[in-house]
Specification:
Elements: H1 2-21, E1 47-59, E2 62-68, E3 71-80, E4 83-97, E5 100-118, E6 124-144, E7 147-164, E8 167-185, E9 190-201, E10 204-209, E11 212-216, E12 219-230
């Protein structure tokens, strides 16, 4: 009996010694670190604003022919291509949906946008844009923080003057305007803008001298820079 207990005790001690020599600690997995999600800041464009622009307009050729009592008497005495410096003011309002920005704008422009020529008979002919008012819709997308790229589309009303020697005729033409622009915020209330606008007006009959008329079809492209101030 005593010898059996001794053998059992010896086996237990041997087993403990074997386990002590081959012990393997438990493997602890390191914690998984998740990088924080950083949201790109979106600029605040919503609200009312006013602004001013300075531009240079370049027109297309407007051929001038003479018609008397409905009969064409000279198909072309020359052509005008209005061009020149102009300034403008505008007011608008914008709504914003995430990065999309859209809203109406009312603008008024005027300046020295004209052209003239002298006919073979020595008569000076001049075409001049006196002013232009336009109602436009601007729709844009913020491509970078505080930078907006947008499209322009709307209707326009232009006041023109034609001179033929000592005679002149003022007329109004309706048309449309479209273009593209970019705007960069300087701070919360001020931003700089750059735009290219195409202005196309309907054909209008103009009386150069009593009984003699021509058909005016002015059009021009205006490149502008300016400032916006948000309320």
């Amino acid at each position: 009996m005593i010898s059996s207990l001794a053998l059992a005790a010896a086996g237990l001690v041997g087993a403990q010694a074997a386990n002590a020599g081959g012990y393997t600690p438990a493997v602890v997995e390191p914690p998984v670190t998740v990088a924080p999600v950083v949201e790109t800041q979106v600029g605040n464009w919503q609200g009312a604003y006013v602004g001013a622009t300075l531009g240079y307009a370049t027109g297309e050729k407007d051929r001038i022919g003479l018609t008397e009592n409905g009969q064409l008497i000279d198909p072309e005495i020359g052509d005008t291509k209005i061009r020149g410096v102009n300034g403008g003011v505008h007011v608008g309002y914008r709504w914003q949906r995430d990065r999309w920005v859209f809203g109406p704008e009312l603008s008024f422009e005027g300046g020295s946008v004209d052209d003239s020529f002298t006919t073979a008979s020595g008569v000076k002919v001049e075409s001049k844009l006196k002013s232009k008012a336009a109602l436009k819709l601007k729709t844009g997308y913020e491509v970078q923080p505080n930078m907006l790229v947008y499209g322009i589309a709307g209707v326009a009303n232009g006041k023109y003057e034609y001179k033929y020697g000592d005679y002149n005729d003022d007329y109004t033409a309706n048309g449309y305007v479209f273009g593209i622009g970019v705007e960069r915020q300087i701070n919360e209330r001020m931003s700089v803008i750059g735009e290219i606008e195409r202005n196309q007006f309907d054909k209008e009959k103009v009386e150069l001298v009593p009984g003699i008329t021509t058909t005016a079809s002015p059009s021009y492209t205006n490149v502008k820079v300016g400032l916006n101030f948000k309320f």
